[in-house]
Amino acid sequence: MFGIPHDELLRLALVLLVGGAFTGIFSGLLGVGGGLIIVPVLYHLFGVIGVDDDIKMHLCVGTSLAVIIPTSIRSFLSHKARGSVDMATLRNWILPILGGVILGTLVAAFVSSEALKLVFGLFGVLFGSQMLLLGSKKIQMTEDLPGRAAMSGYGLGIGLLASLIGIGGGGIVNLVYAIHGRSIHQSVGTGAGVGVLVSIPGAIGFMVAGWPEMAELPPLSIGYVSAIGALLIAPVSMLTAPLGVRIAHAFSRRQLEVALGLFMVILGGRFLIESIVDWVS
After folding, report:
1. Where is coiled-coil annotated (predicted)?
2. Domain that holds residue 148
């Protein structure tokens, strides 16, 4: 197929299927979907099949954004049907988030893999620390969302950060809404909509950014997006996620928060250390 050796294609498919299974289990167990699980899973799997370190993180982020597309659309439509999406905010965020995503993909096209690992690692450590120290404690600082200018700034920042680390941005939206006194149901629904705004242009941007590197990329890659990775991981992770959910119900909410916090601090710390060591060496 396409001049690709069958044994190489089969090996890549099997590795990605296993990765998809673990992605679903950990997503269901720890309550974290999208790139926070997919990116590190892909990073190790692409290492197994020998993807060059100089482009490995770019391929992880781009593929993660592509995987998020169908799940974020499905989630957004479900939440919208229940009336739990803040459509006014989402409409106001369209242009700022799109601008942030474009900026993020432009930055990603010119920075090193170590720089992307550093950003992902910092986010992981900060996110994990917040879960360990605060968990679900209320962190409200104002009575409502700020004005249009500040919200545009939030949108730009969400689009930029989410596209750089390969996440849908829902976790950042949850934090913004918690700070400004909005309900968790509304933040989750709106976060799903943000995932649509981030993932589609983000995946396209990484396809374009990685086009000059096609000769160095794994089979069936479109720029910095592994098509076979996106097609295999998404359905398999959706099938295995309920297993993680069943395991999660054996633990208390705080136990899961601590588990998630430790997981992200350890994972983020590893990415931080690797990026620093790579730079030093």
Report:
1. none
2. 6-280
